[in-house]
Amino acid sequence: MKITLIAGARPNFMKIAPIIHAIKKEQQQGANLQYRLVHTGQHYDKQMSETFFEELNIPQPDINLGCGGGTQAQQTAAIMTAFENELTANKADIVLVVGDVTSTLACSIVAKKMCVKVAHVEAGIRSRDLTMPEEINRMVTDSISDYFFTTSETANKNLRTLGVEEDRIFFVGNVMIDTLLANISRLRESEDCKNLNLQSGQYFVLTLHRPANVDESTKLKHTMDEIIRSSQNLPIVFPMHPRTAKIFSDLNITAPNLHIISPQGYLEFNYLVKNSLAVITDSGGITEETTVMHIPCLTLRDNTERPETCELGTNMLVGTDPKNIAPAIQKLFAGQWSKGTIPPLWDGNAAERIVKILGGL
Fold it and tell me: How many CA atoms lie less than 13 Å away from 327 in the CB half-sphere?
């Protein structure tokens, strides 16, 4: 069986890495599995892409399509055109896509139009928020995929509601957690953070990049003011996304305990999270990692496609209204935060389950 693996943006690399390791393990045991790794180039900054291949010990891609930049439509079109040429030149039995980025959508469409089966890892998750490009990507990808690998029973239910047959849904667990658990002993402090002299359990980690939080400058300033005011002067470490930096630079937001640092590599960022008091974020994937590391997580969103991180884990939906931030942080300081449990099958073996299933198709 020939499998084409698609990686395009930062979260993809954490999800693809354990799948590659699992394929290699099956190959060593005689399985007739071959893979080709395609990097669409959706993220083209070294800190946002190439670093992950190095850190997560996966080979350089067989090809980089170089489709970075442009609007959503321009990038989708560029990826589709380039991937059509790639798939024509290198036939596959299955195209495996992960997550919900532009590359996931674009490559799924191309594969199906070329009559190649599509397997979607992290299928079935939903925020019900159509202002999120990721939600549209999820919906379209799931509407045309052939095989669905899921992280939760909630995702399974969402797919059944769409009419997906039971024998095409495979509850396998969470490949993001495979990568976390495989690397947790390798986490390391970055030079940026060493210079801050951070004390374990005595600082916040902050990430912001979603339009609802950062596109409107007054809203962003209000959000930052509330976080700083509520932090009880503990350090706030903010690895700043390039998208946020463009807007933030004009706001003149400063505080003695606010430390803006460059985007961190995978090992450095999760070291920062693992040793923090709490994380304040608008990311989805980070809520999964904080749940497994038992770190409180305040999510500045009105919805989540990962409800298990709230129902079982350590995540709380704070919302996008800045006035909700202070009460949430007060709850944290009062020791009233949920300790959380780890969701079923988030055990580090999801990729092995996926590859064994693929080998049996």
Answer: 8
For 40-69, how does the pLDDT look when each residue is reduced to its tens digit (9 = 90+)?
Answer: 998 755 554 556 677 888 888 999 999 988
Helix (H) or strand (E) holding 254, with range, is none
Per DSSP, the three-state class of 147 is strand
Residue 109 near residue 140, CB atoms below 8 Å: yes
Query: What are the beta bridge partners of residue 239?
Result: 261
Question: What are the φ/ψ torsions at residue 310 (nearest 5 degrees)?
Answer: -90, -40
Catalytic, 294? Answer: no
pTM for the whole thing? Answer: 0.94
Phi, psi of 7 (to 5 degrees): -130, 135
The tokens for 282 are 């608008």
The b-or-e profile of 258-295 (16+ CB within 10 A means b, else e) is bbbbebbbbbbbbbbbbbbbbbbbbbbbbbbbbbbbeb
Are the C-beta atoms of residues 7 and 103 closer than 8 Å to each other?
Answer: yes
Report phi then psi at 9, rounded to 5.
-135, 165
CB contact at 8 A, 19 and 96: yes
Confirm if 302 and 129 have CB atoms less than 8 A apart. yes
Catalytic residue among 39, 209, 241, 294: 209
Q: Which two tokens stand for residue 48?
A: 């946002």
Q: Is the pLDDT of residue 226 over 90?
A: yes
> Of 99, 101, 330, 93, which Cα lies nearest the Cα of 227?
330
Per-residue model confidence as pLDDT tens digits over 239-271: 998 878 888 988 999 999 999 999 898 999 999
Name the average pLDDT for the chain.
94
Rounded CA-CA distance 8/30 in Å is 30
Domains and CATH numbers, the chain: 2-174+346-360 (3.40.50.2000), 188-333 (3.40.50.2000)
Taking 3-state DSSP, the helix, strand and coil percentages for the chain, each rounded to the nearest 5, stand at: 45, 15, 40
Cα–Cα distance for residue pair 315/301, rounded to 1 Å: 11
Give, in degrees to the nearest 5, the angle at Cα 186 between 180 and 191.
110
